[in-house]
Amino acid sequence: MIIEQIIKNYSPMTETAFYILLSLSKPRHGYGIIKHVEEVTNNRLKLGSGTIYGTLTKMERDGIITMYADEKRKKIYEITDDGKTLMRHEMKRLNELYVNVAKYKGAFE
Amino acid sequence: MTIKRWRPLWSYRVEETEQWLAEMASDGLQLSNIQRFSRFFQFEKVASIETTYQIQYGKSAQLAKTLQNNGWQEVVKVKHWQIVKNDHPTVSLFPSRDGVLRRISSHQDKWSGFAIISALILLIIFIPFCFMLFMLDFEDLAPIWWMIPISIVILAVSNIRLSTFLKRQLQALEKTYFNTTIDQVQATGKTFRKWKNTWAYFPKIIERWLMKMAAQGNRLVKVDGNFFIFEEGQNEKVSYVCEMRKRVEPSYFDMHKEAGWKLKHKTTQHFGSFVIWAKQYKEGETIPTLGQDITEERKQTFRTYLKRSASLIFLTVLNLIHLLLRIKDYKFGGDIGDKTVLGILAIVAIVVLLSISISILINISYTYFFKERKLH
User: Fold this and answer.
1) Among B137, B304, B305, B324, which has the minimal tally of Cβ within 10 Å of its Cβ?
2) Transmembrane residues, as ranges (chain B) (predicted)?
């Protein structure tokens, strides 16, 4: 899938997809992703293994992530270059949101 | 110097092909290209080397950076196929098998369908063909009359053989790469069994029933065919999740097992795989779920219901036609002889079969529409 198509399909990203990709700042096992998401969201977001499995399968099919296996045949997930481009695009969008929140939050207090 | 080797069905014999490529490299023949349609592998004569090969498949199949840093490199890429190799003497990380397994599994589904049609064709064509050979003088027949049935028979037999070959390949790969071991529970107390019709399997109903049994202190030990074996004990908080999946991949089992779910049961039927997962939780905690896609889950249950109903409707219509033809041929008021008794017995048998299929159809339709759907 070409990168423009990937961005069109995935952005704006769901919170689940965003945090899964964010966890792949380094390659991780499936359960490692679940634990990392819990850690960075202070246990607010607890992802079910079914959610992770479904999202990762779709992302792998679209070439955003790739996977390999260790000696014990456990799966390790890694973000691809296309996945990194998608994350940069999404982070830019979220940054814009953040700037606007900071700028206008006073009006809603 | 270029050398070509023909290797039919290589994409189904993946592990064998990888081993063969390694042996070729050890003999000084390095893979340089694959002709996808003619199934020819092209090799270049080089120095002998010990190499590990692996075949990857997928629309987006690509080599992870970590794998590249660990010595893996692409040798050939043809359409969705990627052949990679690693010249290091010890390899600890390997490309994923999921794509290859997914492809073989999907092909096996299709070929098993063709195999069933082929078997029916064999029954329809082969038996009359044998009769024809016995009844008629073979020499009087124009070649076309025996060539067509023979070609169809050869085609049908090839379909059936390919389907069984694929099934064997898939089973071997699954055995190696699927962590489908059932998490066994040793029963120390009194056990008892409950019968459930797993053919008419409704995931949400079974889930609720298992959780109710656990709350009453009945721990699920194992599922043996249609029997659920429980052990009497103390009340437990256990969340059960029953899933009906069209296709299961290696990472499906790994993911749930890593997250602490115990695999209680897995069975593969023609309509898909049924899986039962269990996870204990404490008082006050939220009931653990897999967090699967609810819409997809609903669709899968409905699809399975449709397939079952369609097969029952087919059986009912077949029995009904049979019954009508029998009744039409039956002469009332005739002599009561052996023929009449046999005729009556045949009609009774058809009526019994008809009632069974209609009652099952009503039962599963009622259960699906009035019980299962409400639980989703």
Assistant:
1) B137
2) 111-136, 142-162, 305-324, 344-369
Question: What is the b/e burial string over B47-77, where b = at least 16 CB atoms within 10 angstroms of the residue's CB?
Answer: eeeebbbbbbbbebbbbbeebeeebbeebbe
Within-domain flag for A57: yes
- Collect all residues of chain B within an 8 Å Cβ-Cβ radius of residue A52: 255, 291
Round to whole Å and give the CA distance between B147 and B341. 43
**How many domains would you assign to chain A?**
1
**Chain B residues whose beta carbon lies within 8 Å of the beta carbon of residue A63:** 59-60, 62
- Tens-place pLDDT, residues B72-115: 999 999 989 999 999 998 899 999 888 898 899 889 888 888 88
The C-alpha angle with vertex B305 and arms to B313 and B354, in degrees rounded to 5, equals 25
- Reported as a single tens digit per residue, the pLDDT across A56-79 is 999 999 999 999 998 888 889 999
Give domain status of residue A6, yes or no: no
In a domain, A91, yes or no: yes
What string of DSSP letters covers B180-240?
Answer: ---------S-EEEEE--STT--HHHHHHHHHHHHHTTEEEEEEETTEEEEEE-S---EEE
Tell me how far the alpha carbon of residue B30 is from its chain's centroid: 36
Question: Residue B26 to residues B10, B14, B16, B51, B172: CA-CA distances in angstroms?
Answer: 19, 18, 15, 7, 26
Interface test with B, best of A36, A45, A53, A79 (most B CBs within 10 A): A53
CATH number for the domain harbouring residue A22? 1.10.10.10
Sort out which chain A residues have CB atoms less than 8 A from B62's CB and list them.
Answer: 63, 66, 80
How large is the average pLDDT for residues B253-281? 85
Q: Per the domain annotation, does A1 fall within a domain?
A: no
Nearest CB to A67; choose among B96, B259, B261: B96
More confident residue, B349 or B44: B44
Q: Which amino acid is at B297?
A: E
Q: Which residues of A touch B259 (CB under 8 A)?
A: 30-31, 34, 48-49
Mean predicted confidence (pLDDT) in A6-24? 95
The domain of A96 spans 14-104
Question: What spatial distance separates the first Cα and last Cα of chain B, rounded to whole Å?
Answer: 64
B131 has a pLDDT exceeding 90: no
